[in-house]
Amino acid sequence: MRSRKNKGGFPGRALVMSGLLLLAGGMFACTPKEKQTFTEALWEEQVAQTRISDLYAPHVAEDGRFFAPWMPMPDKSFLDVAWWKLTSSTSYTQEEQAFLPAVLPDTAERLAQTKGDFILWVGHNTFLVRVNDTYWLTDPMFSKRALVPARVTPPALTIEALTRLVPEVNILITHNHYDHLDRATMKQLPPDARVFVPLGLKRPVEKMNKTDVREMDWWEEQDLGAGVRLICLPVQHWSQRITQGRNKTLWASWLLITPDVTLYFGGDTGYFKGFEEFGRKFPGIDYAFMATTAYHPRWFMAYNHMNISEAVRGFEELGAKYFVPTQWGTFHLGDEPAGYPGLDLARYIAENQVDASRFKIMDIGQILAMD
Length: 371
Description:
Elements: H1 12-29, H2 33-37, H3 40-48, H4 78-87, H5 94-98, H6 107-113, E1 118-123, E2 126-131, E3 134-138, H7 159-165, E4 170-172, H8 183-188, E5 194-198, H9 202-206, E6 212-216, E7 221-225, E8 228-233, E9 253-257, E10 262-265, H10 274-281, E11 287-291, H11 298-301, H12 308-318, E12 322-326, H13 340-352, E13 367-369
Parallel strand pairs: 3-4, 4-5, 5-6, 10-11, 11-12
Antiparallel strand pairs: 1-2, 1-13, 2-3, 7-8, 8-9, 9-10
Helix pairs in contact: 10-12
Keywords: Signal
Signal peptide: 1-29
Domain Metallo-beta-lactamase: 137-326
């Protein structure tokens, strides 16, 4: 079909393309400063110049917005985002584009028969953990979309099966981004579930049909009895929802210490000296759940998301026994394909001859027995 021409005689498609070219030309003329100056060496130097003491510094500005005092987040404008989306040139092989975690069948049936302490990967940053007959659920996300991005792999089991098999559960929320705090999922979980959230999220989560929401600040600790402690720890990230202004609520990671096992749930973060401090302050971490997602392009993502080498470095600094990669294989959030980080991590392990037995690259629905 031929293009419909406008009154001036030019095809409509050509007019649109001309506009896009003008926009692109204008964007290329004002390439974001961060894109122009970013190098891995410069980024590493910026991190090295930060001070561990600032991990303990006040982190709320006068306008009520939270920030990371060791390295405040660079401001990114709409043009920065548009420049990234319209000028991305990263290419991936067919294998890299197709790679995804397996989705194991019959998860509910296997879960019902599992004894002892375990880790179950539901998908993305949603893990079900059982320790001494107590259940913990991290960043529950069972919906088909995280606001806009659609799942490329389904959750390991339905939320109905979960609530049937796990009548009492503790929920950990790391921050308010839609792939970590899903309103539809939260409303379907038991109303009396005990929910732990960073500062600013108590009232929003209570509105998601929850009656026991406990708000915590960085470095705050709760004694949950029977030798169990939960500690809220800093990370380098940000927060925003349509109904919640940028950085109006806090973001965090969680350390769960029990008499038998210690687990670090890292949430979303860029690489920072917090890992070194956590390892020093809380020795004996058994499992570290480390984010491996959305790290391309590096000039845009480095502050908020670690690449694979940084995630491994953070894991080593934590002094943890086992690395559990999170947030890969479910949503396409960065330039890289959704499953790419899992493949990238496997390649890193092989190329750097690290001990592969310490890395638990799980399939969706896999139930990992804890040592």
